[in-house]
Amino acid sequence: MKIQGQAALVTGGASGLGEATARELARLGAKVAVLDVNLAQAEKVAAEIGGVACQCDITNAESMAAAIAKAAEKHGPARILMNIAGIGTAKRVVQKDGSAAPLEDFARVVNINLVGTYNASRLFAAECAKLEPLDDNERGVMVFTASVAAFDGQVGQQAYSASKGGLVGMTLPMARDLAQHGIRVCTIAPGLFATPLMKQLPEPVQESLAKSIPFPQRLGKPEEFAGLAAHIVTNSHLNGEVIRLDGALRMAPR
After folding, report:
1. ∠ CA 15-143-65, rounded to 5°
2. 252 lies in some domain
3. Which residue, 23, 73, 165, 224, shows the most beta carbons closer than 10 Å to its own?
4. Catalytic residue among 160, 185, 220, 229
5. Is there a catalytic annotation at residue 160?
6. Residue 79 pLDDT exceeds 90
């Protein structure tokens, strides 16, 4: 699918990998809606790329539907969905005080990362399926954002790894399900990237993490994630696939 002129939705588009992806899609000529819980930051990014900001809770059906409708009113129906919104956490099953890890923490991470992505995807797909097909009878494309933690989860990452592993497991059946509608589905599983969250860590910690990457020995750049996301849109034979973007990193237990 050609990106030029297409309407795109980017969840988590106000910062980090989402912001980089929103900017790259806009650079390539897409009409981008920046969906995020942080409206002020979403408006800032949207203003800079000529897009529209939509405050959105991806776990809430009404909120997500309203954001899709607002974006469509501004840009027309979307054919591109970048599912990038998500959170992370790390808690051992048995805490230092001997108590069990709080169930609420596990449920919150899975709800946002996995259920929220499914919610955004199902609502996008229902609208996208109504559109006229393009070349190759394609109507749309969506990208999930997993993590290398889906495969190499570290100590304390049960919730995060489970949520990202769920996205990996959902990729192929979603692609098969939506094939009849001409909607492709792929997942990117990034490694260690220089996101705002990562940059909050002390410089020595960042350098140590970078050295754990075989090559190149540096943190991934958000624009590299964005470039792959854009390539998935333009390469119509990419479907049902999970792509690791990690410099050959395999995470150690700790």
Report:
1. 75
2. no
3. 23
4. 160
5. yes
6. yes
